[in-house]
Amino acid sequence: REVIPEAIYNVISLLVGLPPDKEFLVEISGTTVTITCPLAEENIDWQSTRKERVIREGKYIIENYDSSPTNVSCSANKKKYDMYLKARVCTTCEELDALAVTGIIIADLLITFGVLILVYYFSKDRKGRASTSAGNRPRGQKTQRPPPVPNPDYEPIRKGQREVYAGLETRGF
């Protein structure tokens, strides 16, 4: 019975879409990146393209990571795992768990709906009311108002008054 070499198995699992049996564990907190090798051995040899090397309890720790891409590999007992690390980190970032984000979204929606209900309530209440201006007088039955007095400068031409407008002649177009 022939055993499939690990490199070929990883390529096949990548092409077919099967997850590899072991993966790196990457934890990011602020600008510190902690990488755990999928090997369960105690003597793990780490290799990286970065100059600084901090290894504690079998974990590769990158402090003050500057978001630049890095190749990291770990090996033990002729088994080797490679990883390409490209992560974004920031110094002022705050970590939020799913419960906090859900709470913020729900609180925002409740406040928005509360404001909408208040606006609707107060606008509905003011529809039927008359305005409260200083010249407000009680209204009785509606009475007809006389038409406005015409301006004497724009008085219409009457039949007996053509001499006022005699200087104006019609033009032929």
TrEMBL record:
Bilayer-spanning residue ranges: 98-122
- What membrane topology does the UniProt entry give? Single-pass type I membrane protein
Record bears the keyword Nucleus = no
Under which name does UniProt file this protein? T-cell surface glycoprotein CD3 epsilon chain
From the Swiss-Prot or TrEMBL record, state where the protein is found. Cell membrane
GO CC terms on record?
A: alpha-beta T cell receptor complex; external side of plasma membrane
Native source organism of the sequence: Aegotheles bennettii
Q: Where is this region: Disordered?
A: 128-161
Q: State any single GO MF term.
A: transmembrane signaling receptor activity
- What PANTHER family does its record include? T-CELL SURFACE GLYCOPROTEIN CD3 EPSILON CHAIN, T-CELL SURFACE GLYCOPROTEIN CD3 GAMMA CHAIN / DELTA CHAIN
Q: Which UniProt keywords apply?
A: Cell membrane, Immunity, Immunoglobulin domain, Membrane, Receptor, Signal, Transmembrane, Transmembrane helix
The UniProt entry, under Pfam families, shows: Ig_5
Can the keyword Cell membrane be found in this entry's annotation? yes
**GO BP annotation list:** cell surface receptor signaling pathway; positive thymic T cell selection
